[in-house]
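Table S2 (text version). Query chain:
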Amino acid sequence: MAENWTLSGSYFEACNCEVACPCTFLSPPTKGDCGVLLAWHIEKGQSGTVALNGLNVALAVYSPGHMLQTKWDVALYLDERATKAQQEALGRIFGGQAGGEPAALVPLIGKVLGVRTVPIEYQADGKQRRLRIPRFAEMEIVAVPGQGGKDITLENLPFIAVPNQTITVAKSKRLSYHDHGLNWDLSEKNGYYAPFSYKGP
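Corresponding structure-token output:
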């Protein structure tokens, strides 16, 4: 019997599309393909008896076309501070084997490029989010100011890794990723951040 699990915390992403990313509206990417880095900071988490509080996870995704019509290449990054039991739990959850929201992405994946255990630095400061994986990735986004300086938010997006959440629209100050033959160095492109809450199976 699969273990029950729950995760909640902070999520953010950045990609190569213009703001706001058309992929989340079921449209083709801005420039024909989509490279996106997703990041989760787990504030509270439990898988069976294994606590997952305070750990970070990242997922790099490359889609050569419309994200619902082409298969993705993906690479998963797990927090090196995790114990073996925690790494196994995170690998099952974010690999889709444990059910819940991450499992919905599995049919879209064509190739898993790899799973690495790495140092992952996550920072949230007001309207900014930052992730750093030494040697491989750096991502920093800041919310786009709306009317009166208020956040621009989206709800009920049809395609997003954090369903049923209010999404804040952001723009990247930097998105750099170099691993598995993928090389991105971008800025001033789309970003989103939101709380997240997942559970399974």
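Notes on Table S2: The chain has one domain: 5-196. The CA atoms of residues 59 and 76 lie 5 Å apart.
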